[in-house]
Amino acid sequence: MKRLPLFRHIILFCLSLLLFSCEKEEISEPFEDIMPLQVGNEWVYDQIEYNTDGEVLSTSSFRRQVMKDTLINKTTWYILNNGMIVRNDKDGYVHYRKDANEQYITYPNPGMSGIAYGYQYPSYTLWIYHRRTTGLVAVPDSPHASQALEFRFERQTEQKASSSLSTTWVNEYVTPEIGMIRTDWYYADSDKLMRRYELVSYRLQ
Question: Which of 148, 144, 179 is nearest to 36 (CA)?
Answer without folding.
Answer: 179
